[in-house]
Design brief:
CATH topology of the largest domain: Aspartate Aminotransferase, domain 2
Number of helices: 17
Strand order of the largest sheet: 1-7-6-5-4-2-3
Number of domains: 3
Low-confidence stretches: 433-482
Helix content: 40-55%
Shape: globular
Number of strands: 14
Amino acid sequence: MAAPNPSTAPTFGHSLRRQFLFPENYTNLNHGSFGAIPAAVLSHRQKLHILSEQHPDNFMRYHSISLLDESRSAVAKVLNAPSEEVVFVTNATTGVNIVLRNLIYEEGDVILHFGTIYGACGRTVQYIADTTPATCISIPLAYPVSDASILSSFNTTVQEIKAAGKKPKLVIFDTVSSMPGMRFPWEKMIVAAKEADVLSLIDGAHGIGNIKIDLTANQPDFFVSNCHKWLYTPRPAAILYVPLRNQALITTSVPTSHYYIPKSAAQYWSPLSPGTKSNFILQFEFNGTIDATPYLCVPAALKFRQDIGGEDAIIKYCNTLAFEGGETVAKILGTEIMAPDPAAVDGGRCPMVNIRLPLLPVPKTEVEPVYNTFTKEVGIRENTFVQVYVHNARWWVRISAQVYLEMKDFVWIAGVLKKECEKINERIKSLATIAVVTGERVDVVNGADVHVEEVRSAKKVVNGMGDLKVSETEGETVTVKG
């Protein structure tokens, strides 16, 4: 692929908005969830749809297969992986399911993951634990934390499992976690897993197009990544990487389809020719009738990325905008960003940034309304979307940087968030009147839970309404003055 020409490449920022499909009044600050495609990629997909309807059989049986091979080769180059080790699946969750459901588990096997695992993947691990002899262990992870601490917690957990006479079979971890949107030391974790004789499954949902990935250099045992999030392909599209050394472990696609090889001698006639490709490639080449055009748009998406500056320039712009934009939002809100480990790869930066929201402790009964306020009410009213969540007993907002955004977008959303937080805090103040100390916790009658030591060190964290007397006597009533 030719190098980008700086003299003809568009300038990053609002000048690139016209290349995408957003209405003039919409500001997309949540690219990380579902991605967004350029108009040029949509046009390419529409042409593929027309071809598939003009000659359905020719397209589905022959033409689409050759196009799929081209897409696999194209995406493999970005990952620096052999094309025979890469296949397409619908999304990262599907890829994780394929790996976990193919492995054979024995009594004493343990699957490890971290506390920041993506919800659907965590449920999949739990399903495996519910239906096989394997058990699972979640390693606590609360940011801010150093990469060294993460690796240490993994190694300690592995030692404890082995000391108990069990086998740590597999560990699943992220390239960049979802919430919080933090870069994970996945490269170092692969090494640590190998040294511990543990299989590594990397959930790279936020991977390709988001950070630099070199699978040949890092050699994970299994790797999945969404193309529709950060690579500008249509939804749904993801890759599953399985090196040749592990392909015998993946005996079936999900769902099982034409190219599954039964263990018995049973034979099933198939109109599909096996050709010269490996069974691993064939299993995912035709996996039932689906709309595979998102997979076939990878070359068009990569061409667009090259035309606007190339992979390195895109990642650099988004990383810088996320970090500097996040710092700006935090300053306006009077809080801070969730700081990455400065010793990490690229300083721990990625195109997503997490900023603490200046909210009082939210009562249990108000958690869902507060979440809906930010995601639905503010989203609809302001023509945007931001992802909010609770981590380590604090409310955070995750903002995605992208080539069509500028610093002024971060300044704008900071103002929106500040006003909304002020309104929510006023509502919380009107609810809190009495707190009861029970052991190590202070339970406010409206449902908020706050650690006693936290109350001592920062009274405003409890209610922001004035003096608060804290007693260690269990069951004693504490009046919150408003």
